[in-house]
Write a structure and sequence with these properties.
- This protein is of the alpha/beta class.
- It has a single domain, classed as Gcn5-related N-acetyltransferase (GNAT) (Aminopeptidase, 3-Layer(aba) Sandwich).
- The chain is about 30% helix and about 40% strand.
- It has 2 helices and 5 strands; from the N terminus they run βββαβαβ.
- The protein has helices spanning about 45-60, 75-85; strands at about 5-10, 15-25, 30-35, 65-70, 90-94.
- α1 links the parallel β3 (about 30-35) and β4 (about 65-70).
- The radius of gyration is 13 Å and the shape is globular.
Amino acid sequence: MVKRSLEQFASKDHEFIGYSNSSATDEGFSTEMTGVLRAYRGGGVATLLKLYGIQHAQMHGNGRLFTVNDAVNTAVLALNQKLVHLGVSKTVNQ
């Protein structure tokens, strides 16, 4: 299988503020990393990045979506749980 990936960048006023990357794997489509600069956290940037990644995966026929998280990143864990609750993703915690 050819590994397909998506790298996304968020900006404000032409300045980098966030990043997310996802890849198609044999198990489905995985969000591997999402990060937002501290000054912009809590403003929905990570949510938009993740939702765009999910939309991209679904548009390319990926029915199983998942992510793996460090247990200490409570903000992203909460976001992923919200996405699971909405039925758009499956979360795998480490």
